[in-house]
Amino acid sequence: MAILELGVMGEPLPAGGFSSADRMRGKVCLVTGGGSGIGRAAALKMAGEGAAAVLIAGRREAEIEATAAACQALGAQALAVRTDVAEEDQVERLIATAVGRYGGLDVAFNNAGFQERRAPLEGQSNAVYDEVFDTNVRSVFLCLRHQLPVMLANSWTSAMRRVGMCV
Ligand SMILES: NC(=O)c1ccc[n+]([C@@H]2O[C@H](COP(=O)([O-])OP(=O)(O)OC[C@H]3O[C@@H](n4cnc5c(N)ncnc54)[C@H](OP(=O)(O)O)[C@@H]3O)[C@@H](O)[C@H]2O)c1
Fold this sequence. Notes:
binds NADP nicotinamide-adenine-dinucleotide phosphate, 5 strands, alpha/beta, globular, Rossmann fold, 5-stranded parallel sheet
């Protein structure tokens, strides 16, 4: 892709090109919503590409534990951390766990999300609105606010290019 050929935020590319697999090697990674779907697949990809550790966050314990076990089978350390990403105290604890257990955080995929039942607007309730915005918007804000200070301890550019979200 053009953006990779140009580099990120003006940083020169490594000699010999840029291999995306190299970006995970030895990194401490976090995936929210890692118990299923895209988040689970991303966590396994991180583990398979040499991540040192993968933290899996989500509300359903069995699902995040299963993803953590699958990451361990691929050779990474992995930890399931039961977290509701719409709750700030739980997000704070999640990031503190990454720091306390693995010494920091290098890669964050803020993937947890909620897809409302398709219905005409006049058929949607305020509760649906709240769940959509709490899960898809507020949670990303909360995650970024607690992740960035930890990631910025490395450098601004490396932090900004390793934060992802799915909307
Ligand atoms: N699949 C698509 O075609 C598509 C297209 C565009 C965007 N997306 C977005 O991509 C992301 C993943 O999609 P997916 O298809 O993989 O969906 P999915 O399998 O339903 O995954 C969503 C994950 O988010 C977690 N989650 C939801 N609310 C949470 C909360 N409050 N706290 C913590 N975790 C929470 C769920 O786990 P728990 O319920 O256990 O917490 C679940 O593991 C979502 O943000 C979705 O909106 C998907």
